[in-house]
Design brief:
single chain, 0% strand
Length: 394
């Protein structure tokens, strides 16, 4: 009942609109990854080309998060959110009608970055329609829309096997249209003009952020946790298919399980960080990620590899919650700009993961090298976090 009262304290229809925007956008953002096996088979792609194919949407999202966040602050989240949905609709239609070559699909993937930028609209919208005492809950509800990765991974391969992967993009236009109609109908535009600072004010806050050393460290660790989460959710269908010879449907189902674990555990990461301290907890989380990824990197039998991968992605989701608890503590007066900057770093980390996995697979002949590289980066991040925790400062 307490949670229900908290949800009623703000404009809950706008919260539903923000959640739906993020949910559908996350489905669109990771659609190429979910269809990666089918697309790669049609174009006879190398491992490097596969990694670039599924990584490009993540790069597009990383590049757009900051300018979209600036636009949402200046013009309001409702018109900017509607513009993003229109761009998503045009992009999935292009994937359906024009994605006939590998280069064209790279272009479609880059344009899918508009969907990845939904983060910079949905979370500010959720926070602005709730009083300060309940903004954390509202943002948590909106952020749970990253479970759209689960829906994409589970349903897209199944539809693709029956109708062909091109038509999956056409089918995806339907939920985008529904989200657009509901978003227009239920979202309340904030009336407080103070919530729409000028662009130069946004740039000023962003400039202040990049002057702080803690910004770089938090960007780096979020590139490991969130970058790992979206990177693996994009690349795992290809990995499961290539390494364990699973069908695209089975590989998609297992990827959906990983995405579900990483999405559902994120709020618990924030809760644990509230209780124990995010700076103290983060080194353990990063060390756990490294250990699990090392175990996966030895490419054990399928029955052992699957639970290890699920646990690794869950640990990344837990780490995402921990890091944003730290962000909320350190940047209390700059949370919007900080979320945009750090979120962009996470998306860029997600882009690098499948690209590096593909390059290393082609150069070494095994996916083991990619897992061990990611584990090594996680160990470095964990060591750095431990040193910062010992100093008790960021």
């Amino acid at each position: 009942m307490t949670i229900l009262r908290a949800l009623r304290s703000g404009h809950w229809p706008s919260l539903i609109g923000a959640w739906l925007h993020f949910e559908v956008s996350f489905m669109v953002w990771l659609l190429v990854g979910a269809l990666g096996v089918l697309i790669a088979e049609e174009f006879a792609l190398t491992a490097t080309q596969k990694g670039l194919l599924v990584g490009v949407p993540l790069l597009g999202g990383a590049l757009l998060r900051i300018p979209v966040g600036m636009s949402a602050d200046r013009f309001g989240p409702k018109p900017v959110g509607l513009a993003l949905l229109i761009c998503e609709l045009l992009t999935v239609l292009a994937g359906w009608l024009a994605g006939t070559t590998y280069l064209q699909m790279l272009g479609v993937g880059l344009a899918l970055g508009f969907a990845g930028a939904s983060f910079a609209v949905a979370l500010p919208l959720a926070s602005r329609v709730y009083p300060p005492a309940h903004q954390g809950l509202a943002m948590g509800v909106a952020a749970s829309g990253n479970s759209g990765s689960v829906l994409a991974a589970f349903f897209a391969p199944r539809i693709g096997e029956v109708l062909g992967w091109h038509l999956v993009f056409g089918v995806m236009a339907l939920p985008v249209l529904v989200a657009m109609v509901i978003f227009i109908a239920v979202v309340q535009a904030p009336h407080d003009g103070a919530t729409h600072p000028r662009i130069r004010s946004w740039w000023s806050r962003l400039h202040d952020l990049v002057q702080q050393r803690s910004s770089y460290w938090l960007c780096a660790v979020y590139a490991v946790t969130f970058g790992g989460f979206v990177g693996f959710c994009s690349f795992l269908p290809i990995f499961f298919h290539d390494q364990y010879h699973l069908t695209s449907i089975t590989a998609g189902s297992l990827t959906a399980l990983c995405g579900l674990a990483g999405s559902m555990i994120r709020p618990f990461g924030g809760y644990a960080a509230d209780r124990l301290g995010g700076v103290r907890l983060l080194p353990l989380v990063l060390a756990s990620i490294a250990m699990l990824v090392i175990c996966v990197g030895w490419l054990p039998i399928e029955s052992l590899a699957i639970p290890l991968i699920v646990a690794a992605v869950a640990a990344m989701g837990f780490g995402n919650g921990v890091i944003f608890q730290i962000v909320s503590d350190v940047f209390q007066k700059q949370i919007g700009a900080a979320s945009g900057l750090i979120g962009a770093a996470g998306g860029f980390g997600g882009f690098l993961l499948p690209v590096c996995f593909g390059l290393l697979k082609d150069s070494t002949g095994t996916y083991r090298s990619g897992f061990l590289l990611f584990a090594g980066i996680s160990i470095v991040a964990s060591t750095r976090a431990f040193l910062i925790a010992r100093r008790n400062r960021i």
